[in-house]
Amino acid sequence: MFDVYITKAAKYLPNEAVSNDEMEDYLGLINDTASKARRIILRNNKITNRYYAVDKNGKSTHSNAELTRNAVAQLFDENFTDQDLEVLSCGTSSPDVLAPSHAAMVHGLLKNRSVELNSSMGICCSGMNALKYGFLSIKSGNSKNAICTGSEKVSTWLSSPKYNHEIVNLKNLEEQPIIAFKKDFLRWMLSDGAGAFLLENKPSGEISLKIEWMEAYSYAFELETCMYAGGDKLENGEIKAWSDYKPEQWLNESVFAVKQDVKILDEFILPKGVESMSDAMAKHNITADQIDYFLPHVSSNFFVEGLRKGLIEKGVDIAEEKWFMNLLRVGNVGSASIYIALEELMYSGKLKKGDRILLSVPESGRFSFAYAYLTVC
Fold this sequence. Notes:
Structural class: alpha+beta
Distance between the termini: 19 Å
Protein name: 3-oxoacyl-ACP synthase
EC number: 2.3.1.41
Strand content: 15-25%
GO biological process, one term: secondary metabolite biosynthetic process
Keywords: Acyltransferase, Transferase
Number of helices: 12
Radius of gyration: 20 Å
Shape: globular
Domain Beta-ketoacyl-[acyl-carrier-protein] synthase III C-terminal: 281-360
Number of strands: 15
CATH superfamily of the largest domain: Thiolase/Chalcone synthase
Order of helices and strands: EEHHEHEHEHEHHEEEEEHEHEHHHEE
CATH architecture of the largest domain: 3-Layer(aba) Sandwich
Oligomer: single chain
Number of domains: 2
C-alpha cells in the first residue's frame, strides 16, 4: 500500500461576495414578496457573505462544470501539468445535467488527455466520497496521482422563477400563495463554488498533507430522508420520484426544488454526527489531544455549540481554538465546503510539520457522515 498526500489545494468562488441584504437581488422575490423567513434563518446561520454564479438578472455566469474546471486549472504548473493527470474524481449535489456524469463534463472542459473518471453523487458527502476514490486509487497503486473536487451551482435551483408556477397554482386553488418553509429554508443557506485537491503518492512543495485514513457512515437503514430534490416526501416518509409525477406537477408543485425536513434535521444531525465521529476516532485510536486543527463542515452556525457539547459528552473535548471554520465568510457551499476550508488553512501560514487535522462532513440527505485524518509534512 502506498502513502497518499494532498500536495496542492485550490478554490474558485464566482463573482463578488454577496451580502445578506443583496441575496434577493440575485435569487429574486417569490410572488413579488420578500421572504418572511429569510432574516430568521440568516440570524441563526450567521453567514454574512456567499457567492453566486449568476448576475442580478438571474443569468448564469458559470456552470457547475466551469466552476470545477476553474478550481482544477489552478493545480497545474510546470511541475505538474494537465498531461500528467491520471484520475479525475468529482463530487457534487447539483450537476448541470442528469447525464453525462459531472466528472465527464469537467473533463470535457479541461481538454487535456484521456484519464480515469469518477463521479460522486449525493449531497455534502459527495465531495468527501470523491476524495476517498482518489485516495484509494493511489493507496492501492492503481494510480500515482488524482485530482478530487467538490462543487456546487445551486443559485439557479433557488431562483424565484422556479417557484412561480407553484404560486400561480396555489392562487388558482384559492390557497395562500406562500411556498412551504421546507423549500424557503434552503434558499438562504446554500451558495456556489468549487474546491479541488491534487493527490500524489509522495509529498511535494513546501507543504503536503498526508491522508492517514478516511471513514464514512450512513444511517439511511434506520432514518428517513431529510434533504432531497427531484421528488417529494409522502406522509409515510417515503419519497415519490419526479418520474412518477405528471409533467405539469413538476412545475405546479416545485418537485425539483431543494427541500429539507427541518424537524428530523434537528432531531438527528448532531447525535448521529457525534456517534459517527466518536466511532471513527475509536477505530483509529485517535483522542482529542491528537487533533491540532478540527475542520467541521456545518450548514449553519446554529449547530456549532450543540456539536461541541455533544462531543464533550462523548469524551471528545476539542479545545475551541482548534476549531477552524470559514462558513460565515464564504457560505455553505455543500460538497465544496470542506475543500474550501482546508485550502484556506493549508495556505494560512499556521500549519507546521507534524500538525494533525481532522475533517468532518455531515450530510442530512439521509444522514451520512465522512471523516479524514491528515498529518502535515
